[in-house]
Write a structure and sequence with these properties.
There is one protein chain. Helix content is 37%, strand content 14%. The protein has 682 residues and is α+β, with helices and mostly antiparallel strands. The chain has three domains: 3-29 and 53-463, FAD/NAD(P)-binding domain, CATH 3.50.50.60; 492-579, Arc Repressor Mutant, subunit A; 590-681, DNA polymerase, domain 1 (Orthogonal Bundle). The strands form six sheets. It has a six-stranded antiparallel β-sheet. Strands 4, 5, 6 and 18 form a four-stranded mixed β-sheet that branches. It has a four-stranded antiparallel β-sheet with strand order 9-8-17-10. A hairpin with a 2-residue loop joins strand 8 and strand 9 (186-189). Helix 7 (269-277) packs antiparallel against helix 10 (335-343), helix 20 (569-586) crosses helix 24 and helix 23 packs across helix 24 (665-681). The longest helix is centred in the C-terminal third of the chain and has 23 residues, at 478-500. It is globular. It starts with 39 loop residues before the first helix and ends with a helix. This is 5-taurinomethyluridine-[tRNA] synthase subunit MTO1, mitochondrial. Its cofactor is FAD.
Length: 682
Amino acid sequence: MAAPAAAALRRFTPVTPGAAPSMSPVRLLCRRHRLQPPWSRWAGSDAAARYDVVMSCNPSFGGIGKGHLMREVDALDGLCARLCDHSGVHYKVLNRRKGPAVWGLRAQVDRKLYKENMQKEILNTPFLTVREGSVEDLLLKEPESEHPGKCQVSGVLLGDGSKVHAGSVILTTGTFLRGMVLIGLERHPAGRLGDPSSTGLAQTLEKLGFTVGRLKTGTPPRLAKDTIDFSVLEKQWADHHPIPFSFLSETVWIKPEDQLLCYLTYTNPKVEKIIRDNLYLNNHVKETTKGPRYCPSLESKVLRFPNRIHQLWLEPEGLDSNIIYPQGMSLTLPPELQEQVITCIQGLEKAKMVQPGYGVQYDFLDPRQLTASLESRLVQRLFFAGQINGTTGYEEAAAQGVIAGINACLRVCGKPPFTISRTEGYIGVLIDDLTTLGTSEPYRMFTSRVEFRTFLRPDNADSRLTSRGFEETGCVSRQRYERASQIKAAIEEGVTMLTSLQLPPSKWSSLIPEIVISSSRSSPVRALDILQYPEVNMELLARIFPEPLGKLAEWRELAERLKIEVVYRVCTANQQQEMEEVRRDEALLLPEDLDYFTINASLSQEMREKLDSARPQTIGAVSRIPGITPAAILNLLRFVKTNQQKTADINLPFRTGRSLPERNTDVLAKSEFQSSNLSRAF
C-alpha cells in the first residue's frame, strides 16, 4: 500500500482523462482479471465482487505503533491519514490508560468511501499519468559505475508486450508475488480471492539473484450484518471527540454521534473442538511457511493457546454496507466447517457467511538486500516497499511507500537519498529493523520496538519530519510546512510563557486545591511545572492568567500539544542526550564498496561473512546485526576511523611538518568499546 508516496512523486506527464483508478501512482497495478476459483459458490457472490477493492483485508487503519506510522506518513504529506479523516466511521484512541507517547490512533474505515476518496486524490494529482497493467518483467541496462549493483532498471514490460520506461521503478507487490490462495485442502494461484498472482515478475527477481522467502497471512469470513444478534454482544463505543489522523485536519468528517458501533464476542470450547477435529483438512496451518505472530489465524491460536477463549471483534465495513468483518477469526478450513465455527459463537448463531475466510501464501524478498533508502543493492534504481519486504499491514506498507517514493524521485534527480534514523521516527525503526536484521515472519510495528518512545510521539511527528521533508526533498506542500512551522513556533512561545509565569506554592494551592505541592517548598513555582499535574490543563491556567494564556487555551490543538510537551519535557531532554550519543555511531558511514573479506581488520571469517551479507551502512547498523560481537564492532570502528583519518591527512592543503602524537590505543579501545556497546543496546 504505497499510496502515501503520491505526495512524493510528480511525473512530468499530464493526467490521463478517465484513466483506470489506482491505489498508488508510484507503481503499475496488475489488472484484475476475474478468475473462477474452485469455490464457485463464493466467487460469483455480490460480496466477492465488492472485495475486489484496494483495501485487501481489514477495514481499519492505525493502532498501537501503527498510529505513529500514520502520523509520520502524514507529516511527510502522505495520503492515507487525510483519507482516513474523510472516510472513517468509528474513531478510537487505544492505550488511553497509558501516556500520550504510546497512544494508538485507530479508525474503522468505510471501504467504499476510502476507495472513492483515494481515486479522486490520485486522478486529480497534477503531472501524473495513471496506467494500469500487469507487470511481467523488468527492463535492464548496464549499471552506473559509481554505484553498487550488477545492473540498472530502466522500466517495466507489461503483459500486453508494451514497455514503460522509467528513471526509477518501485515494486509494491503485496501478496501477489507467486501468491497462492488456500481454503481447506484446495489451493489456487491468486493474490487474493478472484485475482491472479504475479509469476513472471517473481521469476525475474529470482533470476536476478534476490534471496526469496515465503510468508503467509489470512483473512476471516465476511458475515451478513442483518443476520447477527447484536443485542447479546458487548458494545464498543467510538470516542466522543475523535482525534484526526492528519495534522491538516481540524476534525474528522463524521459527527461523533453518527459513528458506528463495533461489537465484541468470544470463542468457546465448541469452536476449539471443531478446529482440532478437522486440522487434517487445513493445508494452510500444516505448512511450515511463517505467518503473522501477532495476528494469527484462529486455528493457530487454538493450537498455540489450548483451552483458552479468544476475543472476536465485529467491525462494520461501511455506513451503507451489510458486511461485518470479524477481526480475529481468520480461518482457512473448508467453507462448510467455517459456517459451523461461526454458528457456535454467541450472537452469530444465525449469522450468514457471505464469503469464506482463506489463507494466502506469497513470496517476499530478504529486506537486508536493500539500503536505508529502500533501493536494491543488486539492481540500481529499483526500490521495494510493503509486503515484498516482509511486512504486514497497511501502515507499515504506507511508511515504506512514502520513503521509497521520495527516494525514487531523488535518485532520478541525482540528489542524495532521504533517510530517517531510529532516533528520528518510527519509520526509521521500521526500515532499520528490516534492512539490518531482516525478518522470518511478517513484521509488525509496536511501540516496544522503539528506543526513544517519549520523544517519538504521535503528537509531534510534524515537528520532527515536516521541515525535513520540505527542505530536503520538496515532497511536503508549502501549506503543510507553514502550518507545522506555525505550530512549532507557538509551542516554543507557549513553553517560554509558561516558564515566566510564577506564583508562590501557597498561592497555587489556594487557586487549584486539587494539586498537592510540598509544604517545604518556599521558592516560586512556574506555571510550566503546574501544567505537569494530571488535574491541570491550559484552560484552567488561562482562568488564572487570562491575558497571556487566553489565546493559547482557545487553540485546542495547541493547548493539548503544550500539555503533552510539558509532561514529557524532562524525559525528552534526557532522551535527547542519549540520542546524540547513539547518533555519533550512526553518523559514521561505512564505504559502500567496502570489501569485508580483504580489509586489514581483526575480523573472523564468520564476522566478515555476516557483514558482507548485511552490507550495513553505518556502525550503528553493524551493532544490530545478529551474531556480531562487540570486539568485531570495535575492530571495524577502529579500521574505519583510521582510514578516515588517513584520507583527511592526505587531503590537507598544508602540512606543518610536525608529527602527530602517538595514539593511546588503550584509551581509544576503551572509549570505542563503550560507544559500540551503547549503540548495540539500541
